[in-house]
Amino acid sequence: MKILIVGRGAMGLLFSHYLIDHDISVKARATSFTDIFSFTNIYGLSSQHHFNPASNKEIANADCIICCVKSYDVSTVIAEIAPYIKSHCAIVLTNNGMGIIEQLQKTFSRSNPIYALLTTMAAKRLSPSHIIHTGIGKNQMGLVSGKANGQHERELINILTNSVPCFTYTEQIVSLQWQKLAINCAINALTAINNVDNGELKGLYYRNIIADAIKELIVVAKQEGMLLNFDNLISTIVDVIDKTANNSSSMRVDVLKQQETEIDFINGFIYRLGQKHNIATPTNTKLYKQVKSISN
To answer: Which reaction does it catalyse (predicted)?
Structure first.
């Protein structure tokens, strides 16, 4: 199976490392870059790897595309390479947030199988060609759009199961997407707006805002056919805050670097669903607009 990895950021290089023994090529924004990158594992051991920079030929031959770009870049990237994508080629999305599929359907009307891959792995880019794996985490993937080719799907799942740490395939991917969205809605915007580590959100002031944001999410999720339990979500969020107390959320990092954030696909997604169903979402709306303000 020929695999194309789109994106040469921390996650793109992380998946490149774990799939390096397979037939992979890597597509980046830059038209030319080194085909060597350094990888430091979670125990501090480093190694160097070579990979094949992707040309249009590699894109056209790909049986699977793993898209490791931010939410706001997904539809643009897929549109750019769409003329070369084979009809059976699987597309795997690793971005945060929700709403991408609806966006893709406006520009990519094909029936290719599209999968969501939810990862809690963490990596940090030390330089353009050097990443360090900072957290093992787990990886869960499932079909979210299109029709899967049985043979290709089995081969892809087998490759990922044997190459990527803690990988599982699940039929419950949409439910898991909502759970991850709840975590991101609770943590990312607040840490970015207040410029604090995740652990600071344990305070009563933040916890009340988190509770209100999650209540709104549950109401709009129900209108989308997804039933979620408040106590279970809050328990999960508190657990994530505890386990990542010293971490800086990706959204906070983006704001500090004056880069675009994924807020449109996190709290902004809840804001738009509220408008769609005529449901007030004041907490998520405020968080969404505050992040938009400071990131602009």
So the answer is: (R)-pantoate + NADP(+) = 2-dehydropantoate + NADPH + H(+)
Tell me the helices (H) and strands (E) count for the chain, helix number first: 11, 12
Domains and CATH numbers, the chain: 2-171 (3.40.50.720), 175-295 (1.10.1040.10)
CA–CA dist 284, 274 (Å, integer)? 10
- pLDDT given for residue 109 in this prediction: 79
DSSP state letter for 29: S
Distances (CA, A) of 273 to 135, 212, 219, 278: 32, 16, 10, 8
If one compares 94 and 136, the residue with the highest pLDDT of the two is 94
Arithmetic mean of pLDDT, 232-242 = 95
Phi, psi of 93 (to 5 degrees): -105, 130
- The confidence score (pLDDT) of residue 30 equals 65
